Amino acid sequence: MANQFDVVVIGAGPAGYVCAIRAAQLGLKTACIEKWTDDKGKTALGGTCLNVGCIPSKALLDSSHKFVEAQKDFKLHGINHSGVEMDVPQMVARKNKIVKTLTTGVGGLFKANGVTLLEGAGKVLANKQVELTKADGTVEVYEAANVVVATGSRPVEIPPTPTDGDLIVDSTGALEFQETPKRLGVIGAGVIGLELGSVWGRLGSEVIVLEAMDRFLAAADEQISKESLKICKKQGLDIRMGARVTGSEIKGKEVHVTYADSDGSEKVVVFDKLIVAVGRRPYTENLLAADCGVNMDERGFIFVDDHCATDVPGVYAIGDVVRGPMLAHKGSEEGIMVAEIIAGQKGHMNYDLIPSVIYTHPEIAWVGKTEQELKAEGVDYKVGTFPFAASGRALAANETEGMVKVIADKATDRVLGVHVVGPSAAELVQQGVIAMEFAASTEDLALTIFSHPTLSEALHEAVLAVDGHAIHIANRKRR
């Protein structure tokens, strides 16, 4: 029957669309529901990541970095020029073109794999039925042998600084500025705040980042976070830790923000634009019928087990609506795992090896355990580091800030964590993910040949440094 499917996925973001494609590849009759529409009212696939998240922010990050290179670094390479200017509307238009290309591409992948797209808002009913409410208000009900909820997340709003879509914006609004604000405020020194703050900082904004926590990038290894903070401040970002925002007031074309400083004093800063980037929350409003049997916690996250199964057999939830880091690649892999489980296969997801990346320039990335975690767990470990300042490839590229850090178990030599701040940090950490997935030791990596000259040699040297065998830096004396 037309209204019956083996799998109905609600949400076409990186968790949902990947799940739908994999399910269809495995021979399951699959539909995917999406309600997001573009400015022309046409259904837009790809979720937050493709439309207003990962992809558009990277487009702006790369454009702004090239602008800084042209302004400051070209002369080092012997490239003489004058009068470099940034055309912000053109930069944003390029970003929009990339987004359209990729979102349209998801539609093409649906057609190629035989996924049925259902346009509208989905709701989980009892007995694995799914209600579809279309844009015109009409309602249809679909029967599904399996339902997968992948509705993603939305930015958190805080009472002291309600967004108005103009002077006070969330991460989505910060991607649409048509000119560089002179004074830019960012609430939140997390991934989104740092990335967006660095974009507009490079283009000339005076950027102040207000972060309520006392420690910068608390989830990262402390040595890496300290090095990253030093680099960010050197680039001109005014990052104020322990700054708890208590209120805001719009006066004309200015935003006056009040915050309690780390010493308890009250301070006021004035901005032309303010970005609120204090995190995201699961998008589960009006998603679950009261009698559907699927349960959520008080924050709106759907309860699932290690295989993303909810309390109702045959109903799963993946991505930002469930526990774990809100990362596109985590959601995608959960989608593949669930599709394979539904198809009777084993399915695999290693939650211990989900890499984290902040796409500032240089990048900050890590996977596995940090030093502070291992100390808390009482694990005896050893550490090796290597600075990019000693890398021939980094020197040639004028990308010498940062370091690679490798942590290994002292008894077994198994790699426990790889942490990088520096050029191509995300790619280097991915090498660590592969090694750790196969339970590699530092000796395994030390015996592996790395091409010369490459940035990845920094990982090789850090691995060698774990046991005091680095070649291209002086090794610390071992006690």
Give structural notes.
Helices cover 30% and strands 25% of the residues. The chain is of the alpha/beta class. The protein has twelve helices and 22 strands. It folds into three domains: 4-155 and 281-351, 3-Layer(bba) Sandwich (FAD/NAD(P)-binding domain), CATH 3.50.50; 168-278, 3-Layer(bba) Sandwich (FAD/NAD(P)-binding domain); 362-466, Enolase-like, domain 1 (2-Layer Sandwich). Strand 18 and strand 19 (363-368) form a beta hairpin. The chain has helices spanning 16-25, 47-52, 54-73, 88-113, 191-202, 222-234, 328-342, 371-377, 392-396, 425-437, 442-446, 457-466, and strands at residues 4-10, 30-34, 116-119, 121-124, 129-133, 139-149, 153-155, 168-169, 183-187, 206-211, 238-241, 244-251, 254-260, 266-271, 273-276, 280-282, 315-317, 356-358, 363-368, 381-387, 403-409, 415-422. The mean pLDDT is 97. The N and C termini lie far apart (73 Å). The protein is globular. The strands form five sheets. Strands 1, 2, 3, 4, 5, 6 and 17 form a seven-stranded mixed beta sheet that branches. Strands 8-15-9-10-11 form a five-stranded parallel beta sheet, with helices on one face. A five-stranded antiparallel beta sheet has the order 18-19-22-21-20, with helices on both faces. The active site is at 452 (proton acceptor). Residues 354-462 form the Pyridine nucleotide-disulphide oxidoreductase dimerisation domain.
